[in-house]
Write a structure and sequence with these properties.
The complex is a heterodimer. Chain A is of the alpha/beta class. In chain A, helix 5 packs across helix 6, helix 5 packs across helix 12 and helix 6 runs parallel beside helix 7. Chain A is globular. In chain A, 29% of the residues lie in helices and 20% in strands. The longest helix of chain B is centred in the middle third of the chain and has 30 residues. Chain B is built from 12 helices and 8 strands. In chain B, strands 1-2-8-7-6-5-4-3 form an 8-stranded antiparallel beta sheet. In chain B, strand 5 and strand 6 form a beta hairpin. Chain B is of the alpha+beta class. The chains are: A alpha/beta, B alpha+beta. Chains A and B meet through helix 3 of A and helix 11 and helix 12 of B.
Chain lengths: 393, 404
Amino acid sequence: MKANCWIRPTQVEVQEVPDPKILNSRDAIVKISSTAICGSDLHLLDGYVPAMRKGDILGHEFMGEVVELGKDVKNLRVGDRVVVPFPIACGACNACQAEMYSLCENSNPQVGLAEKLLGYPTAGVFGYSHLTGGFAGGQAQYARVPFADVGPLKIENDDLTDEAVLFLSDILPTGYMGAEMCDIKPGDVIAIWGAGPVGQFAAASARLLGAERVIIIDRFPYRLEMAKEHTGAEIINYEEIPNVREALKELTGGRGPDACIDAVGLEAHHVSLPVYTYDKAKQWARNESDRPYALRQAILACKNGGTVSIVGVYGGFVDKFPIGAIMNRSLTIKAGQCHVHRYMKPLLEHIEAGRLDPRFIITHRMALDEAPHGYDIFKHKEDECMKVVLSAN
Amino acid sequence: MSPDSDLQRPGAGANAEGSTPNRQGNGGAQSGSQTEALGSSETGNSGAGSGAQKSSDGRTNGSDAKSVAGRNGATPGLKAEDRGGPGSWIDAPIASARSADGISRTDRRIARALGWFSFGLGIPQVLMPGRVARIAGLENTLGKRQVIRIIGLREIGAGVGIFTSQPKPAEWLWARVAGDVMDIGLLQLALANPNTRKGRWLFATANVLGVTALDLMEAKKHTQAVKGSGEGMGLKGRTAITVNKPAEDVYGYWHQFENLPTFMFHLESVTKRGDNLYHWVAKAPLGRKVEWDAEVVEDLPNQLIRWRSTEDADVPNSGSVRFAPAPGNRGTEVIVEIDYQLPGGAIGDSVARMFGEEPQQQMKDDLRRFKQVLETGEVVRSEGSPEGTNAPGQLTPRPAQPLP
């Protein structure tokens, strides 16, 4: 089959690889119809997530048709149309039973490095480095899906196109969880850093959860415009208005946002060249793995007693972390890789009822063969790229 | 990562001595950030039961603090001798009886002294090669000075290597030996030069030969310690995991000893030979096998299984597994201890290799697979690790793409 493989930092390639086989009795093989390139794939592309190996198949947002089942999968049948959540979860461990699926205690067979880097390992994830198990990803024609009796969501309604439900695999639940962690109450103003796909969905979800106002911060006008148009967010372009914190104060009567969502993560940009260069150099010298501008600003901008919700991806360590602001101003930090399984069904209902329509973020559709080009334009924000969906078969 | 994290349960059931977790000691161990632990004689800062006990050689923290303190994971009903007394090895999750890799304190010191010696020799060689040439009785030419400078850089490199590779500087000690051989060769070449001053040359050569002997001796000792060969060593270990199943299930699965090879990858088979008697076959490297009979010597349903090899075993060993309910319906805490008494020679060496450089990690992997089997039904496999959780495999995983 064809699959998009990681070759070396900044290079991916579509290669011919063996077809997947059932390895465990609760596996399913899915023939992939649609798959997408995620912002976090760019962190892998650039080598910011450790433990990538040449030939690793990328991709953790995919859906398709079940073509083969292990003997212990009883709830699916060959031919079922499924969306696959990106974390692999066993459903039986303490974490899964607490619905913290991205912390599954059993699904990651390569725990050594994660344990050293993070303290405890996390769940297995498709196509997301050997830190999360070394599972082949979904930017391919077929994928093996472990614990298929727990993860995949069956799409019964044939009226729903792939594009309408594909993002249930990751970014829609991720954005939703980002908003949910803000514990939104009537009158709340939510500020979101990053108007990428997750930021867009966080904004839409914050509205759905009852936020009074949503303010989104980015530097790309097309992304800001999209958020304004589709989620009703107010926008701040930090290249035009460098003093974001002051702007947020003005917009909130001096109180500051009630909650802040970091939907940027470890490859943030900074408007000040010296600051950006400083962190970039530290990152290059392996003194700091993550560039945390968005997070620093979100923490400092958040109102006293507010919540900072982190769904942007971080990998290791940061510098100049404003712990004084967190402690003295009684801030709450909530974070996590999305526990996707928890949100798939309720969000599918929102989609079916028309309360959410995730299709608006798709800007590029191409064949799997063109994945490297997709990575390229997504990374460099060329052609106003927001989201690339690949058709695999 | 600190190796004690599995078992760190502050405040959980103070043990018979009534001690409390020793947080200070634990901090020290973490700063050491080692995955191995010391043997009983050198358990660094074992706080539990004995206060902040210093190790026999006084090392309590820093890069040498390889052990773990503050363990207080006593299972209710655990007898005092189970814990081996205050401050004993049991405070370390895994302790190697080859005390601190089998390297004596003196040898450690000599290795460090050799490191300093490298600097002491290398720096003047780089900064004032002419003077060094004169002392060695060599002709003071530009060519000689350049060679001496290069040798000086090599020496500094070896010094840096010895210090940065602590506590396992074996490779760098061998690098020193190689350097010595090179120096002897160069001195031989210099002897052919009529301008070499013979008296000084002899003095320099004697010095190099002396250092060579010391380098060789230390390199050998450190290498042996790394390989784990030698007489009368032991491997002891202890680790824990929580399995989200009732104690009956967890105990029941382990009690079928035939099941052990499904999650203990170093075992090939365990076969029942009689009442409480089992034949164990372990896979050693290079296709070798190590076999023994072991009997169950204690069996408390849903609480404890303890086994011990019979008297004729080549590799005397024993082990125990305890089962205790985890608080708040979190399943069952499983605490495993093993103790292999390695004989000298090939068999001991095989078993040492079977457990590899990090026996603690292997035990942890065994227990992770045990948890997977009980909670999910089988060992979880990925394309990168098709054999399942396995520490050595994780160092060089195959790419995350389907197997051919």
